[in-house]
Amino acid sequence: MPRNQGALSRLAELMRRVNSSTDTEVILEEIAHGVVDVLGYGVAAIARLEGDVLVMTNVAGPPDVVAQILHRRTPAEQILDEFREADRWGILRFVPAGRMSEERLRAAWIPEVEPNDDPDAWHPQHALYAPLYSAGGELLGNMAVDLPADGRVPDEADRELLEMFAVQAGVALSNARERERLTDRARLDRMLTSVAAAGAGVQGGLAQAMTTAVEAVAEALATTQAVVRTFPSDVQGHQIGVGTPRPFTPEHDVPEIRQDLLALDDLPVLVEVGIHDIDSARLPSSAAPMQRLMRAMRVERALVCPLLSQDDLVGYLVLGFARNTRPLTMSEADAVLEVGRLLALAVRSSRVLETEQRLVQELRELARYRSELIATISHELKTPLTAILGHAELIADRHPDMTSLDAIIRNAQRLNNLVANLLHYSRIQGRRETVRRAVDLAELCEASVDLLGIRAKQAGVGLAFERTGTAPVVVFGDPEELARVVDNMVDNAVKYTPEDGAVSVSMEVGEDEVSIEVTDTGIGISTADQSHVFSAFHRSTNPNALSVPGTGLGLPIAQRIAESHGGTLSVSSELGHGSTFRFTLPLRSPREQG
């Protein structure tokens, strides 16, 4: 009874410590010594499962025995085989002498005591274990005891006390495993967050993004060497090599890795290469050159992770680990595969960005070339056209009876107007700033209506400016360009309005902007044509509109002028029911008026 009382008291203290302490090593050490000091066993040893090996981490007993057993590594499968052959004593497993294999006996520690003929006496080849499982049934470790205090096989009461100590050891290991999982999860989450952030910053260059990502992976997984290699899957992209802590050099390149990965049909998958592997079924061509590099870098084993982007192999990640480094857990392996996916996404994003930048540059070059071509052709046409018009008008003055000269002059003037529009379009495409001053928009509207009033009258179209008030409506801009916008709006309305139609020009003044609306009762614009009405050289698909001469440059020029003044030019129309063009500008500020 006194021993039971001491055991229960020690157990109560251990239960409190197990549930409050985070130092698992100290708790396991106390449990092992409690089994020896309180229950009277000569030796108590606790092993923790590391991968597929049980490592003896805590031993209580004579110093020479502790020195022999501590840190001993036993394949977990060997112990599990013994459990299958053992007698079940609750959670304990008892292997009587004679039932253990010769191979296992040679590897096991056997106490130097003489066997006793008493069937209840403890035999030196007896083994008593307590498998340590988590609540979910996961094997976490094993506790083994030897040399009971009275030299006899433990009775039921002694086994119950031993089970209580074993339960506390299991709880301690389970708590430690859960803390490790939480720590690992946080560590892997930080790694993936860093890799994702690096991949999102490819605007600063793919090499820099890859460097940041690989450094995060190397730190999180404690690699000896980490390398990422990218290569173009087509004509796009550049080959990049990044390594840490040793920088990547051309000597580190193993082109055969790409060939071997392309031959695999189960990507994405992690492929491991050991420094002593004779051959590799998955990396038949690249294993040997990789092993040469591994020896130079003191890498014991390497993991190769392919970088896949939409089924295209765009690179690979190689992680090198030193000798005695534990294998990756399943969570770590999954995280490495996710790193591969994120790096592949970064490679693809970088290539898309490169393509976009190249296309933008090409479009800019094309736009510049188009503007230069238009300007050159327009200038070359301007001189002969001026000569043609001048001579035609001179001949017409001397020979008024030659009616064909009217057609020559009329078409030459059309060409002259086209050339003028081309030149203006070319100028405004490259211009960024203009000389601006205060402009009265109401005055511009009145001038435009006066200028086009004669043409409207000849076409039988009513044209009026509906002005509210007499105060000036002042904006800040280039008077010639703003007048061109208003003239274009009114001119188009008159041209595309049939006889007996009407065109009205109105103005609406708000607190900080002013709008000019030109509304007509003309042929209108289809929905399809409205999306292209401000595109250069676009002509309507409406046959009635095509019968009216035009260059397709007036509205694009007007919109460009409006935008350069901080305004907008928009249209609302319905085919067959007329159109309304709205030109909006910011009003001149009081500071500007001063």
From TrEMBL:
<protein>
    <recommendedName>
        <fullName>histidine kinase</fullName>
        <ecNumber>2.7.13.3</ecNumber>
    </recommendedName>
</protein>
<dbReference type="InterPro" id="IPR036890">
    <property type="entry name" value="HATPase_C_sf"/>
</dbReference>
<keyword id="KW-0902">Two-component regulatory system</keyword>
<dbReference type="InterPro" id="IPR004358">
    <property type="entry name" value="Sig_transdc_His_kin-like_C"/>
</dbReference>
<dbReference type="GO" id="GO:0000155">
    <property type="term" value="F:phosphorelay sensor kinase activity"/>
</dbReference>
<dbReference type="InterPro" id="IPR003018">
    <property type="entry name" value="GAF"/>
</dbReference>
<feature type="domain" description="Histidine kinase">
    <location>
        <begin position="376"/>
        <end position="589"/>
    </location>
</feature>
<dbReference type="InterPro" id="IPR003594">
    <property type="entry name" value="HATPase_dom"/>
</dbReference>
<keyword id="KW-0067">ATP-binding</keyword>
<keyword id="KW-0597">Phosphoprotein</keyword>
<dbReference type="InterPro" id="IPR036097">
    <property type="entry name" value="HisK_dim/P_sf"/>
</dbReference>
<keyword id="KW-0808">Transferase</keyword>
<dbReference type="GO" id="GO:0005524">
    <property type="term" value="F:ATP binding"/>
</dbReference>
<dbReference type="InterPro" id="IPR050736">
    <property type="entry name" value="Sensor_HK_Regulatory"/>
</dbReference>
<dbReference type="InterPro" id="IPR029016">
    <property type="entry name" value="GAF-like_dom_sf"/>
</dbReference>
<dbReference type="Pfam" id="PF13185">
    <property type="entry name" value="GAF_2"/>
</dbReference>
<keyword id="KW-0547">Nucleotide-binding</keyword>
<dbReference type="InterPro" id="IPR005467">
    <property type="entry name" value="His_kinase_dom"/>
</dbReference>
<dbReference type="GO" id="GO:0005886">
    <property type="term" value="C:plasma membrane"/>
</dbReference>
<dbReference type="InterPro" id="IPR003661">
    <property type="entry name" value="HisK_dim/P_dom"/>
</dbReference>
<keyword id="KW-0472">Membrane</keyword>
<keyword id="KW-1003">Cell membrane</keyword>
<keyword id="KW-0418">Kinase</keyword>
<dbReference type="Pfam" id="PF02518">
    <property type="entry name" value="HATPase_c"/>
</dbReference>
<dbReference type="Pfam" id="PF00512">
    <property type="entry name" value="HisKA"/>
</dbReference>
